[in-house]
Design brief:
With about 70 residues, this protein is mostly helical. It has helices at about 5-25, 35-65.
Length: about 70
């Protein structure tokens, strides 16, 4: 996998982490409302999926298969 093909996934991960961080730090000490908790859960699932995709693509590249 080249840097160019990794970049969109890495950018997505960066954006999701930034949003997660903003959500968590903005509400430190006051807690999250239900919509914010739902968004945080969605962010966490999306991050897991993005990291999995990146790992799959890197493994496919390493072993000469397609992900």
């Amino acid at each position: 996998m080249t840097h160019e093909t990794e970049q969109p996934i890495l950018q997505q991960i960066h954006d999701l982490v930034a949003e997660e961080h903003r959500l968590r730090t903005t509400h430190t000490g006051i807690g999250l409302n239900q919509a914010e908790r739902n968004r945080l859960e969605t962010l966490e699932r999306s991050l897991d999926q993005a990291w999995d995709l990146l790992r799959q693509r890197r493994a496919a590249d390493e072993f000469g298969t397609e992900a």
